[in-house]
Amino acid sequence: MTTDGRLARGARTRTAVLDTAVALATEAGLDGLSLGQLAETLGVSKSGLFAHWRSKEELQLATIERAREQWAEQVVAPAMRAPRGVRRLWALHVSRLDFYAAAVLPGGCFFANAEFEYNARPGPVHDRLAELLAEWIAFVERLGTEAITAGELAAEVDVRQLAYEFEAVGLSAVMRSRLLPSESAYPFARRAVLDRLRAACPDPTLLPED
Amino acid sequence: MTTDGRLARGARTRTAVLDTAVALATEAGLDGLSLGQLAETLGVSKSGLFAHWRSKEELQLATIERAREQWAEQVVAPAMRAPRGVRRLWALHVSRLDFYAAAVLPGGCFFANAEFEYNARPGPVHDRLAELLAEWIAFVERLGTEAITAGELAAEVDVRQLAYEFEAVGLSAVMRSRLLPSESAYPFARRAVLDRLRAACPDPTLLPED
DNA sequence: AAACTGTACGACCGATCGGTTTGTTTGTCG
DNA sequence: CGACAAACAAACCGATCGGTCGTACAGTTT
User: Fold this and answer.
1) Claim: this prediction has a pTM higher than 0.90
2) Chain A within 8 Å of B19 (Cβ-Cβ)?
3) In the prediction, which pLDDT does B202 show?
4) Could you give the CA distance from residue B137 to residue A176 in angstroms, rounded to a whole number?
5) Which residue, A132, A154, A142, is CA-closest to A79?
């Protein structure tokens, strides 16, 4: 096992930079974030950043991947501890709302911010964000399909429709939570998905009353 | 009737600038839009812009008001031609989706973009966007209340909950429509609201089948 | 005609942008 | 030890940022 101290230091710096970049990007935007600000916030020099990423776009793409990891760890992973089926879907929704409410990121959601920022800007960043959105939707749809297989959702349920509404409710929650009193966001977001799941779930004991 | 030619010219320039600013802001962002680019696009000088707005922030606030007018004219007004009640709610949803699908603005929706851009940036722009979001929600809620009064929605319907889901479905539609094939946006957005309205509407003839 | 006002321009300002160049420190090797 | 490389930093580059200034012209008022 060879642990090159230089490479280790580089890796440490890299994740520290990307963690900060993810957070700052939810405030100033993925493009609005400037390398100078980022360097100053971290106490490193601007040229130090170019030692790791050859351009701003490369750093943006790396930031996206880091945000994906954070989402997987802090939102998806906790939900995967719930048993497969309708409870896991519900756990994912709650986990997501908790992530927003805990203000892990000042802007709430890295992807919601970035996707709206780049929805009319062609390029690699736009394309990657689109890929990850499709991936996220497919994941939610898969959880829905699993719930049907487990007999916890009626077989007639359109999982694509269910996933659409699931995602829409969560997206709206993060937007409202940053602009309006949070009482006008999370309670409605909980109820919307809970109503939808309970209506399609034959076993009412699997989900909370409210 | 005094029509000062100078004021008329100024007003003409002002609306031309703001119309362009609204459209450009959905691409580059309300903040990402630079005065130099805006001036060049319009064929005027940068300093000419400062004759009308003393700072960029003033122009941003004016751009927001112009976007509000556009939304009122092109989305709300057509829906108001539908009879009060559940049909008007449905018309508003369709009108909104049509507005997105027609690509009136390259970024889809001025407000969705701006609200995510400014959700973590305190200041007058943030505050104004929050006000307009609250106003929009209150408007949708009022349409829901009217529908109950008209007996076209069950009295037990929670109009705030209904308005939340109505808005969430529309918001998600504009995001998906810019990043994914539009078949994975509009059909789901239609169905989501239609299902919700039909479920709460005692008279099934008021709404389309699909 | 003179006085005045609103609109618009070109030139310019300091600051900051993304990016480059040159050089130094830090750690791994033969 | 010396050769080498990865990880940084300082100084600097042209371009662009938001904003100011003095000026010119068009149109209104007296």
Assistant:
1) yes
2) no
3) 96
4) 10
5) A142
pLDDT in tens, A99-118: 999 999 999 999 999 999 99
Which superfamily is assigned to A64-206 in CATH? Answer: Tetracycline Repressor, domain 2 (1.10.357.10)
| Each residue's pLDDT tens digit, B73-131 | 999 999 999 999 999 999 999 999 999 999 999 999 999 999 999 999 999 999 999 99
Query: What percentage of chain B has pLDDT greater than the value 90?
Result: 94
DSSP B70: H
Contact between chains at A167 and B164 (C-beta distance less than 8 A): no
Contacts of A27 in chain B (CB under 8 A): 120-121
Please classify residue A44 by burial: count the beta carbons closer than 10 Å to its beta carbon, then call 0-12 exposed, 13-18 middle and 19+ buried. middle
Distance from CA of A10 to the nearest CA of B (A): 30
Residue carrying the six token digits 């995001």? B175
Distance B66 CA to D25 C1' (A): 29
Cβ proximity of A189 and A92 under 8 Å:
no
* Cα-based distances in Å from A35 to A40, A44, B4, B52, B182: 8, 11, 49, 33, 35
Which residues, 6 or more positions from A205, have their beta carbon under 8 angstroms from its beta carbon? none
Cα(B116)–Cα(B125) distance, integer angstroms:
12
How distant, in Å, are the alpha carbons of A85, A96, A197, B113 from that of A152?
A: 6, 22, 10, 37
